[in-house]
Every structure is written in structure tokens, then in C-alpha cells.
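Board work, copied verbatim: V-type ATP synthase beta chain
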Amino acid sequence: MNLQYIGLDEIKGPLIFLDDVEGVGFEEMVEIKLPDQPSRFGRVVQIEGKRVAIQVFQGTQNISLTNTKTKFSGHPVEMSLSKEILGRIFNGSGKPIDGLGEVYIDETRNINGHPLNPVARVYPRNFIQTGISSIDALTTLIRGQKLPIFSGSGMPHNELAVQIVKQAKIAEDQGDNFCIVFAAMGVKNDVADYFKRQFEEAGVMHKVVMFLNLSNEPIIERTLTPRFALTAAEYLAFKHDMHVLTILTDMTSYCEALREFSSSKGEIPGRKGYPGYLYSDLASLYERAGIVKSAKGSVTQIPILTMPNDDITHPIPDLTGYITEGQIVLSRELGQVGIYPPVGILPSLSRLMKDGIGDGYTRDDHSSVSNQLFASYAQVQDARSLASVIGEDELSPVDRKYIEFGKLFEKHFLDQGFETNRDIIDTLDLGWDLLSVLPKDELHRVDEKVLDKFYHHEKAVERFNIVTKPIINELKGDERHE
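↓ predict structure ↓
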């Protein structure tokens, strides 16, 4: 039964309050009718006895306490869906804003999703190629995984998101069933235009569903945007058996909107003013990624968040790290010297990559390349730290070789550029070329048979124009002395 009430008891920020309300449910959709104004919509966000708080999507400006009519719909917020949403642009409330009219409705779904039975989940395997070497080789994205990108203010996470959308693909035999759901929250108009222009110019808009919430729009809409996006992703994955990559940017804007909304409700704040339920709220979004037995499709998530003051212990990245399966951390130091994408290798990891790479997925030497590149680059940092104390001239020949490897690794492997799209085979071959710069007996993380097959010092020297005689002679001199 639809109920309608006349008049309000209180207006507070984006919330309106009604007393003596019965028979309504949490998250129920509400229509707010105003005299001489278009109707607004909201949802029930708090119930205390017979007192109900309603979150108004379009804001509470010019709402009257006396002659406002509030109608409860009896169902939660829903989204109209069909396969026609591919190639369309929606606002944060799921309404088309591309001028192409309404979407033909195949079905409507609750934007809060439905709980997945853990027993019905399938362990994620098979990788998604982003065309970015530092991600594909070292922090591989696995289909069905949730792998966030930790960035900072002013860093090129928007460019990285665009590059992933343009270049991401799955195995060729399933390529037609791959699509992307892209949701931007709290972005400026020029950033929103940048996203749209890049996707259209790259010719990938036909496989993208875009949701845009602008910074000048109500914060309430910002809290709904990722839910609409994930609902669209689940529909395409589990109804049409598509493999969906969902990119959510910027989750920090979402969390700040949640903090402001929580403050309006008068809730007791937790760490840094964020609500105490921030963990469970983020989990309700991130856990909507995965694969289920009943469908051939999958939902993969890349949430992007900017760390306030580059603080990885801030509640947003901290809690995100607990829920997700790894992280890609952008390095400000690499960005300041012009390296793009500035992926910080050592603090980044993908916890599921071990089961989605290797023979049958990428190439049988992938794990060896990844482990050795990590170990060697860690050694580079140690050598650089030592050089900053005693000077590079005082380093041992091997440490100087690591310094040289580090420069080549950052120049040729990390500094890929915005337009370069590398196949995984090209990435692995480049990794071996770089590792072959180092002495063979320094590659401790690689099996001897694999090393014999892929190690090629002379080819690496020729490719990178390395002058090796002084270092080789020094190494031989040390051996003679011993």
C-alpha cells in the first residue's frame, strides 16, 4: 500500500524528517511532491520508532514544512536496465544525460544488490590485460578481482583510468563479451568532458557504460553513483554473461559525501570524522565484484582513491586495503621526475595474480620475471640509499650495476607513456631484457632452466647501448684477487 503524508516535521541539510509514520521500510523509495515545482525523490535512511529520516536526492532547497506531500512507494531505489545501456551516459542517479532518450526497460533492479552466497562464488582466474607493463607483469589484474589504485592529489590517476579503459581486454576468444562500467564521482566539468572526449576519440564508447556525478551536484547523488554503476555491471555480467570491468573514481569523494551525510544525521563520528560504519559501507560496494557458478560472466573492480596528504594509513585507503585483494600505489617521486604511469612497484601487489598467470594464462615464465623484477628493484633502492651516504663512486661493481639496472627499468619499463599499449608477451620480453643487464648469478629468484632459456646479456647490452667493459673488468679483477 502506498502511503502519502502532508507536511514535514524538520528539515536538516539534505534530510527531511517525518513523525508518526508507520509501515515503511529502510531504503524505501520516496516521492516528494512540491507545489508549483517538479517532484523530487529520496529514500528512507533512518527509522527510529515512528520517526523517519528521508534523504532527498535533489537537495532540500525551497522545500516547505507545511504543504509538502511525501509519498512512500513500497520498494527500494531501483534502476531500469537493458543491454541498451552499453554506449550510454547517465548521471549519478541513473538518468540518461547523453540526449539519446530513455533506455528501453528489460528489467528493474534494486541498486543495493543482492547478497551472493559465498558457496556460489568461483575463485577468480584468467587475467585482464591493461596494456600497462607495470600492472600486467607485476600487479596483474585477475578477472573477478577487486584491485584498487591508491593515488594522491594532482597525480595522473584520471589519465591512468582512461588508458585502462582504452586498452583493457581479455582473451581473444572471449573479447566480444568484454565491457567497461565507468563511474566518476564528484568530478569537475572539465574532467567529465575529458573522460567523454577520450572514450569517443578512442572509439571505445560502444563498450562503455558511463555514470557521471559532478562536483556541483548534490552529495546525496554521489553516495548512489557507485551503486547504480555496480547494478549495471551485475546485470551485464550475470544476465548477459559479459565480463565487466568496473572503474570507480574517486572513492575519496564518495567517502567524504558519506561523512557529510552522516554528520547531517547526527551520528557519532569515528576516525577523522568518518562514520563508524565506513568499513561495512565500503565492503557493501567492493564485495559486489566476483564470479558466480550460475553465470559465465564476471565483475572486476578497480576503485581509484586519492589518499589525503599521501597518507596510506588514512581511514579510506586503510579500510580499502583490508577489503580488497591488493593495491596499485602511484608514487609521487616517480611522477615528479616525469615517469608515467608512476606506479610504485614495491608497495604495490596483487594477491590473486599467482593463480591467474603462467602457462595457459599468460606465459610460463611470468611468475619468474615478476619475482625477480621485484627483488632486483628492491636491491636498487638499497644501492641508492647506500650511494646517498658514501657516494656512487664508492659502491661495489655489483651495486653500481643495480643502479644502472634501476635507471633502465624506470626509463624503459615504468615510463611507458599514455599512448603505448604493450601486449603481455612484449612486456615479459622487455622484463627479460632488463634482467639480462644484471650478472647472471644475481638472479636468485629464477629457476636455472628458465634462466638458461631467457637470459641474454649480449642482446640486452646491444638494446640499451650499455658500456659494460669497465664493470666487467672490475668484476673479473675482483675474482682474480680472490
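Confidence is low (pLDDT under 50) at residues 469-482.
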